[in-house]
Amino acid sequence: MNNLFDFNYEITLLSSLFFSEESIKNIDPDIFYYPIHKSILLTLLSLEQQNLPRDEILIHNHLIKTLKLDENLVANSMIDVLSATPTSNHQAYLDKLVELKRIRNVKTSLLDIQIDIQENKTADEIEASLLLISEKLVTKSGVELFKMIPASHVEAKESDFITKNFIPVPKKTVSIFSAGGGTGKTSLLLQLAMHYLYENQQEKAFCWLSEDPLGLTKHRLNHVIAGLYPLGAETLHRLILSDDLTFPTLLEQNRTMTINSHFYKMKMMLKEFKLIILDPLIAFYGGDENNNAQAKLFMQLFTKWASEEDKTIIFIHHSTKNTSQSRGASAFVDAARAVYEIEKIKDEDGKEVESTKRKITLTKDNYRASRHFGGFTKQIQVFPNENFTKNHQPAFVVEYTSDEELGIQ
Q: Can you give the residue range of the structural domain that contains 107?
């Protein structure tokens, strides 16, 4: 890829827009370096304004008859665009082309300054040119640093939660459940997923439990349903599981962290799911566990996904040794809106008591989940009592999807 333009990015974006039904009225044609690509986008914009379909013949005729472009150039360029593989994540390509356009603008401005120097202009004149160029660059970039909305235009909304009567988890954001090994965190989250599905009869939940085989997960579900939550038997056709190997969301290339393209495919595959549970967090990370900058980037990807697509995402996270506190960079916890820590219940001598229960502590509560939780600490039964009726085994089927491209085989 040239540091000023990229042919493949341009044709991939055009191909994606050609086969998409989304509006393109906010796309700046100047992000394209190649004039023919800019003309194709302008044609797509014209078709949209006229409520016409993005039809190959209409585009071809507009480029030749209206814009008076060379017929061979149009034919070859259309072949390039239509033979390119469209992507479901065209925003990433759009962002990259915007970035390249900004770099081109900077280079052009620097050349203008160099001409001023060669023409022996005064320091005051050169500085004035620099200030003017800086202002133009910011204006041309089209990139807003932040939104500014009058308070009168903002609709007041209280935070909403799933499973309010069990363990309240805020909607449209990321939460973390942290615990050490053998504390029953997976059984607890499976129970939470069944509560959610019973309360939301039209929804589906996805649990990627990469550390446990599906057979063991099914065994845990059997026990929870038989001894704790029999209503869960009605939900399992909507509880979708996977035990596939995970992939790192972040990849290090040339000392820079980049986003794995598998992340975007995962988003596409999980579009229909409102509740997503990922276990463990570190298996999806890919960065340095103690690097706050990398952890922040990782969490931002998931918080943005949750917010924009109305997902409730829960990470199961390993705790530091001999504690229930989340291990690794503080940015993991900083980005989460709720953090629950799971501990075994012990007496004053450190001996475990209430072996079927766990102490659940709400250690971070940005959205006031404590109102529904009844405070910040509660004992919850995670495992059935030892004397529960083992013969009560409901019949049900667990479905799950598997895609080798999502895992590293």
A: 1-156
